[in-house]
Amino acid sequence: MQLKRVAIFGVGLLGGSIGLALRSRGDANLRIVGYGHRKETLQHAQEIGAIDELTQDPATAARGADLIILCTPVGVFDQLIQQIAAELGEHTIVTDVGSTKRSIVAAAAKHFQNRKGHFVGSHPMAGSEKRGVEFARTDLFVGARCIVTPTSQTPAHAQQAVTDFWKSLGMKVTILSPEDHDRLVCEISHLPHAAAAASVAMQNDDALQLAGNGFLDTTRVAGGDGGLWRDIFQDNRDNVADSIRRLREKLDEFLALLDPQKRDELAKWLDEAARRRAKLVSEKLKEMQG
Predict the structure, then answer these.
(1) Domain residue ranges of the chain, discontinuous segments joined by +
(2) Spelled out in words, what is the top-level CATH class assigned to the domain 5-176?
(3) DSSP state of 74
(4) Which residues in the chain land under pLDDT 50?
(5) Does pTM top 0.85 for this prediction?
(6) 3-class secondary-structure state, position 64
(7) What are 179-206's pLDDT values in tens digits?
(8) Which of 102, 147, 104 is nearest to 124 (CA)?
(9) Which conformational region is residue 132 in: left (phi greater than 0), alpha (psi within -120 to 50 degrees), or beta?
């Protein structure tokens, strides 16, 4: 897919990093337009070279774009899709960076019906708890994984174009259905964030004064933006609720093993968790080296 015009909706950490990564290719024929609500953010993105043009009108941003990437919070995806639907060209492809997929796929199917262009969901698993274009990096996506979520209605060429796009930014691509994405990503992203937030929320001030690096490392993701994560949790609430119930079951197991008569069982329980984590770390290191 030869890109001549890319529209980035939301030029924070992810959107700004996409712009910087695209610009680093040195393609003088590529124009990048940024859309957002805050003009100061758009101007900053333009100053650092993440975008060439800026606009606060979604239809203007979408018009004439080969590729549109939605990088706003998931809570506004439905509205944005509705606003840009009439501006899609015959070959326009729309994707996103959202942490949930079922709702965005459903919104695209509804608003893009009988329209030109195609939607293919994406979730680049890169970034941090920090937000804002000031944290954008050219290499943010290098070596990270992106999940692409086509449906049975997704044209093969559109899926391939989105897959190739993320690979061109240095990402490794996994294909999942929107349903499998929301279930599995809840396990390894949404639930840990909820657990980290709960671990901070339960502390009294006296305990927090004693907190060291271990506590800070364990709860790092709890520093994320509340509004953004509210949208993610509520959008994926069925999977989040199921994961929380299963976590409770594991904590109940742990609670039962605190019985002094079950010292050996507790050690085995902890060793098994450590073994599984060590295996995961080893696999991730091999993946990065490969």
Answers:
(1) 5-176, 181-256
(2) alpha beta
(3) G
(4) none
(5) yes
(6) coil
(7) 999 999 999 999 999 999 999 999 999 9
(8) 147
(9) left
